[in-house]
Amino acid sequence: MEISPNSEAAPAVDPWPGYFTDLGHPGARRIGAGVEGVVYRLGDGLVAKVWTGRPPTELTRQVYADIASRRLPFATPEIFEVQEHEGIVVTYERELPGVRMRGDSAHEEFERELSVRHRNGLLAVLRGLASVPGTDAMRQLTVQGDDRPLWQGQGRFQDALAALVTRAVARHGAKLAAHVLDFDAGLERTLNALALLPDVPATVIHGDLVPPNIHVDAAGQPVAVLDFGFFTTAGDPAFEAAITAAIWDMYGPYAREHTAELTQLFAQELGYAPATLTAYQAAYALTTYDLFGMGDNDGHFPWCAEQLRRNSVFGVHAS
Predict the structure, then answer these.
(1) Cβ contacts of residue 46 below 8 Å, gap of 6+?
(2) CA distances in angstroms from 105 to 31, 71, 228, 254, 296, listed in the order given
(3) H or E stretch at 68
(4) Taking a C-beta distance cutoff of 8 angstroms, is the pair 289, 305 a contact?
(5) For an engineered disulfide with 34, which of 2, 76, 135, 255 has Cβ 3.0 to 4.6 Å away?
(6) Distance between CA atoms of 153 and 107, rounded to whole angstroms?
(7) How many CB atoms lie within 10 A of CB 273?
(8) Would you place residue 11 in the very low, low, confident or very high pLDDT band (cuts 50, 70, 90)?
(9) Are 317 and 182 in contact (CB under 8 A)?
């Protein structure tokens, strides 16, 4: 859950601070909101999350514990307790340090030049997460929009991802195809590319490393990674790098240039084949295109269509 003070306006009368005060947390206050709920600071390094979207499960708690056990150079979420109040799930978690690396490009204009601080910060996070082995709990997670655990019936991440692509396209693929030239041929090329990728040891995949989900200190060093859950699983760490390059700047005037530069940077610094990163970027667009609606009021659907139109694995016409 992204903790963003601008995500959602606070209600005129918010009963939750009083509720937490009655439980022994005087001074509880709302500090932000995300897609899945609202976050309150309780003090003593503790926050409470009031879930209005898909709530966490015991499996989520185990995944958090699996990641935290690796003692990464940055903090990650830990759930201490799960309660329910009037049918609403509330989790009590560690408060993560730092401030957002930056806002997202839908609300903040990104400069043309990628700063050394941002480049190094992204590399540090990718290297850290790639050191966390994939666990059984991670393999049992269901990614957003799907109806089954990603790894169900599959032995390789690449095959699990290809099966997800097929299921996702079956939902509303005709609407996406109307915006992308030679869609069926591109889909086949992408599935073939995934099938040919080599198997690698699975590591944790965050799947949504947009700038607000990385917290940094005053020197710009990553001190926390938050908001696991959207596409969290076990998989090829190259997938994490590919998606991070694509979603760092999604809507800014230099988005295309930034994606290309970060893709090249991650290929060079982390040793991933550029074609592998490009195939994973196509797969991401094919599996998330309809998760936020497909109308004119949301930018994700046209963003996915544009990703496919210029993806060199998906389309022979890409430039």
Answers:
(1) 25, 80, 92, 93, 94, 95
(2) 21, 31, 20, 10, 18
(3) helix 58-68
(4) yes
(5) 2
(6) 40
(7) 12
(8) low
(9) yes
- Asked if the model's pLDDT at residue 32 lies above 90, the reply is no
Report the Cα 319 to chain-centroid distance in Å.
27
Residue carrying structure tokens 């097929």:
166
Q: How large is the greatest C-alpha to C-alpha distance in the chain, in angstroms?
A: 62
Tokens representing 269 are 């610094």
In 3D space, the residue among 90, 82, 77, 123 whose CA is nearest the CA of residue 268 turns out to be 123
CA-nearest of 67, 227, 72 to 134 is 67
pLDDT more than 70, % of the chain: 94
User: How many angstroms separate the CA atoms of 175 and 210, rounded?
Assistant: 26
Residue whose pair of structure tokens reads 């690796």 in the numeric block: 70
Using the predicted structure, report yes or no on whether residue 3 has a pLDDT greater than 80: no
CA torsion, ordered 136, 140, 143, 148, to nearest 10 deg: 150
What pLDDT, on a 0 to 100 scale, did the predictor assign at position 316? 65
266-277: per-residue pLDDT in tens?
999 999 999 999
Residues 6+ apart with CB under 8 A from 88: 50, 51, 52
Q: 30 near 4, Cβ under 8 Å? A: no
pLDDT at 8 > cutoff 80:
no
The letter for the amino acid at 173 is: G
Instruction: Look up residue 153 and give its two tokens.
Output: 């019936």
